[in-house]
Amino acid sequence: MFDIDWRGLLLPLAYLVVLVGTFMTFSTVYRKRKALESANLAPWFGPHLQRNIYLSLLHMEPEEGSEKSPRVPDSVIRAALLRRAVEDIHRIIQIRSAKQACSSLLQRGSVGDDLWQRFQRAEKEMEEELRDVVMEANALVPGWGQIIFQSANEIAANKALRDRLEEIEAQTEHDKEWWEKRRASIKTEFMKELDEESVKGQAKVGSDDEAVLVDTNTPSATPSGVSKKKKAKK
Amino acid sequence: MSTDYAYDEEGYLWPFFVFTLALIITLPLTYLLVNRSRDPAASFPRIQTNFKHAHADTVDSLRKQEKRKDRKLWLIFAVITGWTVMGYMLYLIQTTEAPTHKLWNPYDILGISESATEKQIKSTYKKLSLKFHPDKAKPDPAKNETIDDLNARYVEISKAYQALTDEDVRNNYIQYGNPDGKQGYSINIALPKVIVSDGNGKYVVLLYSVLFGVLLPYVVGSWWYGTLRRSKEGVLMESSNRLFREYKDSIDEGGVVTALSTGKEFEELFKGDKADSGLSKVESRILAEGELTSLAGGLSLKDKEKLEDLESGPQRKALALLWAYLGRIELDDPELNKAKFAVAPIAHSLTKAFNAIALAYMNTGPLLASYYASQNIIQAVPPRSSPLLQLPHFTPAVVKAVEGDSRVHTSLQGFMDRPDAKRRSLVVGNDLLTEEQYREAITVAKQLPFLRVAKAYFKVTGERFIIPSSLVTLVVKGRFVPPGSENVPEINPADLEDIDPAEDDLDALSGRKTRKLVGKDEKTGKPIYETSETELVAPPLANAPYFARDHSPRWHVFLTDSKQGRVAVPPFTFAQFDRPVLEADGRTPTFAMQTLKAQFQAPPQAGHYTFVMHVVCDSYVGFDTKMEVTLIVEEASKAAEMEVEDEISEPEEDSIAGIMHAAKGGQPKRRKPQVEEDDSDEESGTDDEDDDTSATNTDTEPEN
């Protein structure tokens, strides 16, 4: 009835096997590699120091020898949580401002796909982090969750302002020194000019009263000028 | 294989086929090769200078190396192979004799002329048959003849005779070119028989599977992953990602330089033990006390901290070398000096990526910082340092002699504007410049293209007012006035105007032509324009003796909102201009008025908008212009009203309109309070017109 020529079919079957096999290996290898890549993506933010401090305060291990774990005062825990919130504010600001830029750059092909993946992961993590902080705050003091980020925001803004102020104030010493030097050099130059003028004036009109007046003034000024100049040189 | 087609058994057809194929492939490749090996920078004018610094040879060799890298070896190989194959095929075509398919001509066979009469034919046939009849003729052994040959020849002769006398045969001959009637024809495939002959089939299949199963996926794959690897700005994607992470809203030029050092390109440059070799030496040199700045490398204390915070490795070395390059610090080691000049072009290519990132954030500060960093890198001048360092032979000591203790840097223009004697007395002297060096510096300074903006204004093509959401053109008029140039001609006021091309002048509207000012009409005083083909002129290549690339300077024009510190209109880039920059001798400036145009959408609300316009050159330090421009957006109804008014002739003096007109006093831009009653239909009218103009305007968008 059906006389199947198995040997003749061998070749097409082998072809199919090779084809399907290739595709399957390719797709599994490719997917595995992709998964590995996305698992190994570096986190957007570094380690969250404030959160680590808060959590270690909360779960203090009992010291060796003693049964009970040391009691951490509530105020310290609250302060640690607030610090954690402040750091979160920094991070959330960074994410908010970067989001639009990142997506538009991705569309234009200026940044890579993995950056976007990292970004989205960071965004998701931040959302959870915020929720966690609010929950913790409510657990510590009922109702605090609503306002903790407001205070954190103010702290962050204040910190930024103070940093800027300090930066400017650190400059003052340097500026003062520079100005002293500058003033001295201007003074000496000015005096030199005056000297030259008076010498000229004397040569021309020796008996002029005003020229004499200037002349009497100069000696008192010149030594200081010279000394300042010396200072300026070193 | 089908037997209908014959393969090229004689081997005279396939050379044609191969020749054509090789020609199709080789010609474009040859064009590519010739085009590429021609130095594109050679066509640009250059700033004429004899200045050579101590490491000019190193920089030159780096430049040449880059050009050599451009030349692809495989391309040369492919082209040579292509031409060899074509030559060989030509030789084959020449030497292989094509099988002769001679036209069968009875006259030739009988050896008579075509005008012969029937009588002549008959007599000739008789003569020939007497001579060549197989019974009569004997085979000639000298000619290597046989009986068969003789027979064949006789048959031919009688055939020819019949063709000329017999009616049917003659018809056959006329119709088909053969007395026997229609002949079969054959189609040959121009492939050598070898390909299809038995036993070779498997090799052909193998070749096919290699071509389509291996080579094609490989080529497509490498192309695709190649595009994924590099960002749109041409830097590695990974570098771009890292730069994005380094971006901060408060970043300054020093910060940008630090950020640039994260580039992955540097990791490839400093592989293995190269990453650390000589690092401590470089660092000690750049952190030594400098003449102008507190540190010799020109880095601020903040930048120093950042450098010291880095782990030692490629990034730290790249950053240290970059600072050494910016501070022009001698490293006393040919290897390190070379590396110093090699990092700069890479850093410059990374500034482009950083620029794109700063632009995506739309903050003015980082955007400007990225442009300034580019200027600094091209000129090898540390951030916030004196622009005078751009001049040849100007060392920190010379700059110090000019600036003294002043904190405000003397700009190049300011320095050159001083009288020659004063300049000379400042910089020529012991330990400073010699007379010759001074002259060299001044000649270079007098060639630097400083774009001095004369006027900047907004307009809408074909309209008198700017209405909300229309397509506004920012017109910047400026001249290239090198610092210290004398006898600069006065600005011709007519040059400052920007006349719309006539509406029927499609070439001008689409930007194919520019209009040249020819003269002024004697009577009306209106300027006369002549349209001419646009021929964009490039300014000379940037004078950058330390930068190991040829760089064509670009100007970026953008608008910012000074209150919010944000970019309002993203940069438009100009690398070529509509009027010549230099005279034919290549050093005298023409002072021709250049027109830069940028188009953008007007804000949707009427009002006065004040922007800060920045014109930033990416190649020279201190050649930037910053000025305030005000965009006045009128209500759409107002523009419609004006149009109606235009149509009405002068209003009578005693009418209200006349009084209004007098009150206006020829100030069409001043807004006037007026009751608007019937503007709804007119407004729709203007909207249509607005659409029209914007449609044409998109065509006239300038190349940038």
UniProtKB/TrEMBL annotation, chain A:
Entry-linked InterPro entries: Sec66
Entry keywords, A to Z: Membrane, Transmembrane, Transmembrane helix
GO biological process: post-translational protein targeting to membrane, translocation
Residues covered by region (Disordered): 197-234
Compositional bias (Polar residues): 215-225
Pfam families the UniProt entry points to: Sec66 (PF09802)
Positions of transmembrane segments: 12-30
Cellular component terms per the entry's GO annotation: Sec62/Sec63 complex
Protein name: Translocation protein
Organism of origin: Parathielavia appendiculata
From TrEMBL, chain B:
MF annotations from Gene Ontology: protein transmembrane transporter activity; RNA binding
SMART domains: DnaJ, Sec63
Organism: Parathielavia appendiculata
Swiss-Prot/TrEMBL keywords: Chaperone, Endoplasmic reticulum, Membrane, Protein transport, Transmembrane, Transmembrane helix, Transport
Any one GO BP annotation for this protein: SRP-dependent cotranslational protein targeting to membrane
Domain J: from-to ranges: 105-177
Record-given protein name: J domain-containing protein
Subcellular locations according to the entry: Endoplasmic reticulum membrane
Low complexity bias spans: 694-704
InterPro entries: C2_domain_sf, DnaJ_domain, DnaJ_domain_CS, Ig_E-set, J_dom_sf, Sec63-dom
Residue ranges of the TM segments: 12-34, 73-93, 203-225
Residue spans of biased composition, Acidic residues class: 645-655, 676-693
Membrane topology listed for this record: Multi-pass membrane protein
Region (Disordered): 645-704
Gene Ontology cellular component list: Sec62/Sec63 complex
